[in-house]
Amino acid sequence: MQSNMKPKGLTLTMIFEAESANYGESVGNVASLKKISRNKGEQYTYISRQAIRYNIVEQLGEDLAEVKAEGSGDKKVIQFDPKSTIKDYPEIDFFGYMKTEKGNQSKIRTAKVRLSNAISLEPFKGDLDFLTNKGLADRLNENMNIAQSEIHHSYYKYTLTVDLEQIGVDEKEDINIDDSEKSRRVGKLLDTVAMLYRDIRGRREDLKPIFAVGGVYDVKNPIFHNVIDVNKNKVIVSQIKGILFDNIKNDTKIGLIEGKFDNDEQIKEELNTVIMPELFRYLKDKVNEYYESN
């Protein structure tokens, strides 16, 4: 069943502030953060898109799609149960699936909600935390175990893009859910992102945006992903203004939580910002309008 809706995309690029939120493989007794290199070899930590997806699904408040294990031993693969469909599970409606059955061709649904990695906007300087289990060792009068852990507190940015006319539609399984349910699902996704958090190593990191820019557009490009940056605790306003073509500007809304950036007044004046709840209300209204008009 094909979608007959007008092509529309929602994109939202967000900045949040967090600390040490995604670790990779440890090196010896040192827990290593996930990192990439840029510029002249400077290192930037990141939270993978898979990690963000995990937290969104975890906090979405919808039933989790059923899964099953295929194969045995080292070749055992855990995947979505072929009986799980997008009709019942927003998780696979948003992020896609691959279903394989012995003797049948695989079914693949690509993601209709895509995420970028959340990359730090300040370089990692090699800071380390020193850890022991003194509290436990003292109880047995034994020597402590020692470990180290990389730490990095920074602003991070990531982008959410939603292929609106593809939400709730699965041509492979002949499914097209009601438009009201499509609107409800995207609205709930936005509510989740607005208050997203991440539990890691005894901490709960706050991933809710403190700056965000986006809208619902005729194009499906993550428009603002490559123009959002922070330098010396200031959002670089000129880069954002540089991408505001008329057809983009008219559909764009920018949210700001005041008190974090040193150029709050410039951001408000030149980008005509709103408070964060107003931005998310605007996006949900635009999503509702889109589905009601089709």
Automatic annotation (TrEMBL):
State the Gene Ontology BP annotations. defense response to virus
UniProt keyword annotations, A-Z: Antiviral defense
Matching InterPro entries: Cas7/Cst2/DevR_sub_I-B/Tneap, CRISPR-assoc_Cas7/Cst2/DevR
Task: Reply yes or no: does the keyword Glycoprotein apply.
Answer: no
Q: Name one Pfam family in it.
A: DevR
Instruction: State if Lipid metabolism is listed as a keyword.
Output: no
Could you tell me what this protein does? CRISPR (clustered regularly interspaced short palindromic repeat) is an adaptive immune system that provides protection against mobile genetic elements (viruses, transposable elements and conjugative plasmids). CRISPR clusters contain spacers, sequences complementary to antecedent mobile elements, and target invading nucleic acids. CRISPR clusters are transcribed and processed into CRISPR RNA (crRNA).
This chain belongs to which protein, by name?
Type I-B CRISPR-associated protein Cas7/Cst2/DevR
Organism encoding this protein:
Senegalia massiliensis
Recorded name of the encoding gene: cas7i
